[in-house]
C-alpha cells in the first residue's frame, strides 16, 4: 500500500490514502464517505448478478485501514449503507463485533434509511444533518455550508479527468479540496465518479489504481 500523503489544513494533519480514506491525526479519526455497504446485495435481490466479491473487497479495505491507522473513531460522512437490510448487512454486524471498541459516527446520508434500532444494535452513533468537530464540519450533501468551519462532504462521488496522448482521457475518483470545503471520494468501488471543474480547486488528489496522484 502506498504511504499516505500529508495534507495540512487549519493546522491539522490529514493523511490521505489511495484507499479513499482520510486519517485525521489530531483526533485519531478515520474519515470515509459513501461506502454503500449492502449495495451489491440490493442489486442481486433485483436480479442483477453483481458478485459479492465487490462488497467483500470494500470491507477488507476498511479492515486494512483500521489495522494500519489504529483510529479511536470512524467518521462516515453519509451513505454508510445503501438501502434496507440484507444478508450483507448481517455480515457487517458480525464484522462490527471484531471492532467493538471503535467508536463509529455516521452523518446520515440519503441512502441511510435503516431504522434507529438497527444502528443502535450495531453500536453506530447517528447524527443529522451535520457533525462539528474541532475546526471542521461534516455533512453528507451540504458542501457549501457558510461559516467559520471548513466542511467535508461526500454524496457527489467526485472525479477528475486526466488526459493522455491524443484524445485519450480517463476519469478517476479524487479528493477535491476547495477554499472552504473538501469533497471526499466514494469509498466503494461500486460507484461512478462525477467530473469536477479543476479551476476553482485548491488541491486535487486523484486515486489512480492503488496510488494517489496530486493533480493540482
From TrEMBL:
Annotated InterPro entries: Calcineurin-like_PHP, Metallo-depent_PP-like, PdeM-like, Pesterase_MJ0037-like
Q: Which residue ranges does the record assign to the Calcineurin-like phosphoesterase domain?
A: 29-125
Q: Single GO molecular-function term?
A: ligase activity
EC assignment: 3.1.-.-
Catalytic EC class? hydrolase
Which of UniProt's keywords are assigned here? Endonuclease, Hydrolase, Ligase, Nuclease
Q: What protein am I looking at?
A: Ligase-associated DNA damage response endonuclease PdeM
- According to its UniProt entry, this protein's organism is Flavisolibacter ginsenosidimutans
Amino acid at each position: 500500500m502506498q504511504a499516505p500523503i500529508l495534507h495540512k489544513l487549519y493546522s491539522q494533519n490529514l493523511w490521505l490514502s489511495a484507499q479513499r480514506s482520510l486519517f485525521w491525526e489530531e483526533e485519531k479519526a478515520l474519515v470515509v464517505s459513501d461506502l454503500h455497504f449492502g449495495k451489491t446485495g440490493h442489486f442481486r435481490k433485483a436480479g442483477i448478478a453483481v458478485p459479492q466479491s465487490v462488497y467483500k473487497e470494500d470491507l477488507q479495505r476498511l479492515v486494512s485501514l483500521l489495522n494500519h491507522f489504529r483510529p479511536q473513531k470512524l467518521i462516515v460522512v453519509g451513505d454508510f449503507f445503501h438501502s434496507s437490510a440484507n444478508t450483507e448487512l448481517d455480515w457487517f454486524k458480525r464484522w462490527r463485533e471484531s471492532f467493538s471498541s471503535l467508536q463509529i459516527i455516521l452523518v446520515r446520508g440519503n441512502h441511510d434509511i435503516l431504522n434507529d434500532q438497527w444502528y443502535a444494535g450495531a453500536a453506530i452513533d447517528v447524527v443529522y444533518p451535520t457533525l462539528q468537530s474541532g475546526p471542521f464540519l461534516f455533512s453528507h450533501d451540504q458542501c457549501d455550508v457558510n461559516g467559520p468551519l471548513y466542511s467535508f462532504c461526500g454524496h457527489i462521488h467526485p472525479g477528475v479527468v486526466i488526459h493522455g496522448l491524443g484524445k485519450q482521457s480517463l476519469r478517476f475518483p479524487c479528493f477535491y479540496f476547495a477554499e472552504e470545503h473538501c469533497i471526499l471520494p466514494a469509498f466503494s468501488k461500486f460507484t461512478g465518479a462525477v467530473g469536477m471543474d479543476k479551476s476553482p480547486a485548491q488541491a486535487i488528489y486523484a486515486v489512480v489504481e492503488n496510488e494517489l496522484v496530486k493533480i493540482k
